Amino acid sequence: MANYLFIESRDPYGSNDTQFCCDLAKQLAQQGDAVTVFLVQNGVFPARAGARADELSALAKAGIEILADEFSLRERGIPTDRLTAGVKPAPLDVVIDRLADGCKAIWH
Amino acid sequence: MKALNIIETGYRATLEEQDDPGVWLAYTLKAAGADVDVLLRGNAVNYAVKDQDAGGLQYGAWRQTQPPRLAENIASLTSKGMAVFIVSEDLQERGLGGVPLIESLTPVTRNGIARLLGNYDQVWHW
Amino acid sequence: MADKKTLTFALMDPPYENARSTTALRLINIAAKRGYDINVFAYEGSVFLAFAMQKPHPNAMHGRNVEEENHVLTKELVSSLMQEAMRNGGKIDWVNCGLCVDERGAVEAVEGVRRGSPADFLKMAATSDNTLVIVTRG
Lengths: 108, 126, 138
Known about the structure:
- The complex is a heterotrimer.
- By secondary structure, chain B is of the alpha/beta class.
- Helix content of chain B is about 30%, strand content about 20%.
- Chain B starts with a strand and ends with a strand.
- The model of chain C has no long low-confidence stretch (mean pLDDT about 95).
């Protein structure tokens, strides 16, 4: 089993390529790998409760851990106590933690 | 250490750089002894098209005499011993199904990428 | 320091163009605070992150003069990160891709930055605990 960290910096409103990360994350999870998606920069936009967030919902349904950079959320006025279901706020330190642990890390 | 270079954006700065920086880097890393392969996805799959022609640009009296030859550059990766994978569905959705492409590329489906990643220690997405 | 790690970052974006350069420096900051050894391979426009000739400017929209504006100069962030790493028992080896420097004329870099090539990135990646490539967008 391998550990993967996807750092998603793009949002699904300005980029239709976010589907790539979503699909790949689900496939890796299906084959038994541990996957975390870390949202950063505009990637946190769909984390606001009420936003169109089909991909995040699909990831959450697949049991994939979804974290959102606390600073990126605050920068965009997204309250951390009202996030899309399945998304948890997290400090950017988590990315360094996972890199230090040897996760295969892919920036998107 | 075995690394997979994923090249996704197509035609970013290629006219100024006279090549694709991700492709150039993969070639150069291989030449330096790296064990690297390449996966073309997104718009970068168009690099495999044989009949690209970026020649003829002129700015005042300045003419570009060495336009990028992206298909040739991709072919040079395989001739250096790299596996170059290309995502089938990305070709299809860009209408490249029946278009002449350079040889020696290995098609992979979107569903096959997950399995492919397991063959590499590092995945570098350029 | 317990459990010291070595991480490599490959960057591509120049400063003042998008959010990726900010996030990259934030990540390096976290690693520097932990006293990690950090390798940075600055490729393409990111060779300008450490460009020594950056200058601050006032901002009329903000109603601030040069001093008041305290404009972010990424060269100062790079220098500060190097000091932070050293303060915590680590170091930053910052390599600007030489050909990228040449074609952009970004020759003058702050102290501690050295000129290199993809061979340096390869060595960094091979000897690190992990590598993160922060790709630019076209």
